[in-house]
């Protein structure tokens, strides 16, 4: 009987350890932190419950009911709020203020959805620095919004693989995307709000994930980890950047339009400068011409007393001169 009790205890401990492995989100501990739980589809739910997991036991924290509101049990009612999002009815938030080390641990969010049943997500709160600092980058992938993106990692070492996981890493949290457990022959279904497709098969040496219809929200760090039976692991980190194709086109049009406008301004300024230079040359030439005309008139006046504006008929009139008539007879000799 004692042997059977000991065996049951071992099985419960093993179950608890397995549950600790398959958390959906890891959140960095902070005095003011929020735990988000998002149901993957918009459905009518009867109520949402929050628990804190201690081994195989769950301690009730609070409950949200669409008709009856929110109830939070002691002692959590003095250091957290249970909120339902007004913009997304399938999203509920557990908000801590003035949290302590006693709040470190694993939390469970349970949706009771009619008629599908229950849906649970596990969130683990850990004391850690920035999660991104512990993820050295291997490659950078850039893609446009709306396209499908595939991230792939080829295992370089030759040892038997036990488990393959993909995670999305942010400064304050890590989200488990896929988990392929080869020793158990099954793939864990993550509670990530976006649909992620992946491959999971025996003797897997190459793992990939497919993100459909990407948006800017999908940008971030993605980590793939191969784990061996011996405990060894091999990791690969890729940075994904999603850019808006429409924004790029608008930017290109803006640059092209700005270039054309700049050339137009340059042409206008050039024409204006040329016109100013011609005007200055004309202004400099007018005094010289007036001086030359004045000198020409002075010379003409000196040569002829007749006015230049006098009619030609007056200039052709006959001129009569009176002079004495001398006798042509010879003088007598004396």
Calculate the terminal CA-CA distance, rounded to whole Å.
203 Å
CATH domain class name of the domain at 132-246: Mainly Beta
Any idea what the CATH architecture of the domain at 132-246 is?
A: Sandwich
Any idea of the CATH topology of the domain at 132-246? Immunoglobulin-like
Compute the CA-based radius of gyration: 49 Å
The general outline is extended
Which percent band covers the strand fraction? 35-45%
Transmembrane segments: 251-275
InterPro entries: CD226, Ig-like_dom, Ig-like_dom_sf, Ig-like_fold, Ig_sub, Ig_V-set
Organism: Sciurus vulgaris (Eurasian red squirrel)
Domain Ig-like: 31-109, 115-241
Outline the structure in words:
By secondary structure, this protein is an alpha+beta fold. Among the domains are: 22-127, Immunoglobulins (Immunoglobulin-like); 132-246, Sandwich (Immunoglobulin-like), CATH 2.60.40.10. The protein is built from 3 helices and 18 strands. It has helices at residues 2-21, 245-303, 312-315, and strands at 25-28, 33-38, 45-54, 57-65, 69-72, 80-84, 91-96, 105-113, 117-126, 139-144, 149-154, 161-169, 173-181, 186-189, 196-198, 206-211, 220-228, 233-243. The strands form 3 sheets. Strands 1, 3, 4, 5, 8, 9, 10, 12, 13, 14, 17 and 18 form a 12-stranded mixed sheet that branches. Strands 2-7-6 form a 3-stranded antiparallel sheet, with no helix packed on it. The N and C termini lie far apart (203 Å). 16% of the residues are buried. Mean pLDDT is 79; it is low at 6-21 and 302-315.
């Amino acid at each position: 009987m004692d042997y059977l009790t000991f065996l049951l205890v071992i099985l419960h401990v093993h179950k608890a350890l397995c549950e600790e492995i398959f958390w959906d989100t890891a959140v960095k501990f902070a005095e003011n932190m929020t735990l988000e739980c998002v149901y993957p589809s918009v459905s009518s739910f009867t109520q949402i419950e929050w628990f804190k997991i201690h081994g195989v036991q769950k301690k009730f924290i609070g409950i949200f009911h669409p008709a009856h509101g929110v109830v939070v049990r002691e002692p959590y009612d003095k250091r957290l709020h249970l909120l339902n999002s007004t913009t997304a009815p399938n999203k509920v938030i557990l908000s801590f203020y003035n949290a302590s080390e006693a709040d470190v641990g694993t939390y469970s969010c349970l949706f009771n959805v009619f008629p599908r049943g229950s849906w649970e997500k596990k969130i683990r709160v850990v004391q850690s620095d920035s999660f991104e600092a512990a993820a050295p980058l291997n490659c950078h992938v850039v893609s446009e919004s709306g396209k499908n993106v595939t991230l792939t990692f080829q295992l370089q070492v030759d040892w038997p693989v036990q488990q393959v996981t993909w995670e999305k890493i942010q400064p304050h949290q890590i989200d488990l995307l896929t988990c392929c457990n080869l020793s158990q022959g099954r793939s864990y279904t993550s509670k990530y709000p976006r649909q992620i497709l992946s491959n999971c098969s025996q003797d897997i040496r190459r793992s990939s994930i497919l993100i459909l219809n990407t948006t800017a929200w999908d940008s971030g760090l993605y980590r793939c980890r191969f784990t061996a039976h011996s405990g060894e692991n091999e990791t690969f980190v890729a940075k994904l950047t999603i850019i808006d194709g429409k924004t790029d086109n608008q930017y290109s049009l803006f640059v092209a339009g700005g270039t054309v406008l700049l050339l137009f301004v340059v042409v206008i300024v050039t024409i204006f400068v040329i016109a100013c230079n011609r005007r200055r040359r004309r202004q400099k030439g007018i005094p010289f011409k007036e001086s030359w005309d004045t000198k020409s008139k002075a010379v003409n006046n000196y040569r002829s007393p007749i006015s230049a504006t006098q009619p030609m008929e007056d200039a052709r009139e006959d001129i009569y001169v009176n002079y004495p008539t001398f006798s042509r007879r010879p003088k007598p000799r004396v």
